[in-house]
Amino acid sequence: MSISDIKARIGDFAKDTRINFPKIFTPDGAQGLSEKQIFTIALSCAYSLDNKDLVAAIKSDGAEHLDADYIQAAQSAASIMAMNNVYYRFIHLVEDSEFAQMPAGLRMQVIMNSGIDKKDFELLALAVSAINGCGMCMDSHVKTLLKEGVTKTSIQSAIKIASVVTAADQSLKISEIEKE
Question: Over the chain, what is the mean pLDDT?
Fold first, then answer.
């Protein structure tokens, strides 16, 4: 499975996604990010979307950029943000502000000790939080990234990757439905 294989499986109804998908894996399509960051962000998004074909394609085409630590960090970001995004989205959306004052009591050590560069893990967490729709988490990760000196262009690129990987996931699902 490769990125080209995924692109070929995306139907004409999603021509924009078919064009955008391979582009996000290039420095021009994801400005401000290294290829290691690009492929790791995309991989964390594919894991969070539970799409085996996207995971396989990203790991295959990104093999020279993805070492074991970065693959594990992508898995960790998808996992920890699944928990945090549900919890903090609840805190943000519920009208009773007392919940926000209560200690979460949830272990989140991987955020501080992910095994990769802190900025890189924050980019992964931001992208997954965008997919999961947690505004409170997105705001927190953006503030941390800006404080760490990451540019707004790099942050925008991480979100573009998340959006296009999500669109590719949806397009593949639609294509499968239409085959039935």
Answer: 96
